[in-house]
Amino acid sequence: MEKEKNKRPIFFFIGRNDEPIFSKKNRKLLSDPLDDNNPITVQVLGICSALAITVQLKPAIVMTMSVIFVMAASNVIISVLRNLIPNRIRIIVFLVVISSLVALVDQFLKAYAYDVSKELSIFIGLIVTNCIVMGRLEAFALGNGVWKSFLDGIGNAIGYGVILILVAFFRELLGSGNLMGYQVIPDFVYEMGYENNGLMLLSPMALITVGLIIWIQRSRNTNLIEEN
Length: 228
Fold this sequence. Notes:
By secondary structure, the chain is mostly helical. It has helices at residues 2-6, 24-31, 47-52, 57-81, 90-112, 114-120, 122-125, 131-139, 146-176, 187-191, 203-220, and strands at residues 178-179, 182-183. The chain is globular and about 65 Å long.
């Protein structure tokens, strides 16, 4: 009877576990990548997309959603298969899983958001080689359960996406006065002499914007400052 009482029902892919679904450890998998362990500002991974697709806010949001889907799904798949994957071919398996999911995303965008698909073009395909996705499969999904791997994928993808969206927000707003293609800065501001900063639309400004975000983050969270 005691064993029956201690058994928990299986929900979705979580399985039987004495640890609560959203325990402190599990919540940390979601929250850490947003600040203390952000993939871009702390681990300095996936920086290329921040340079390439953040001229406008819309492509950055679509890329964020695409990466969330790919990372969450690939983490779950690799976690399910982790005991069946021979060590010597694990990277090949990672690439097959990721590229299959990226192909699904690419076809979905072509069917339902063709204009955005044309804008992102090659960059959606480059999710396959994004070191954040590959890194989480190798460092986490390969050694942890499905639920934790799912949370880790979601958390890291959101942490990555937040930086992309922040960079794109400031670049589009200051560079063209628009957001999502709509004019935000009113005409009377331009009549007073204000001009859009065309430098914000150049690739180097993405790196400078990321640098400023890193500086602000470390000013607020001194634990991230490295000791000499």
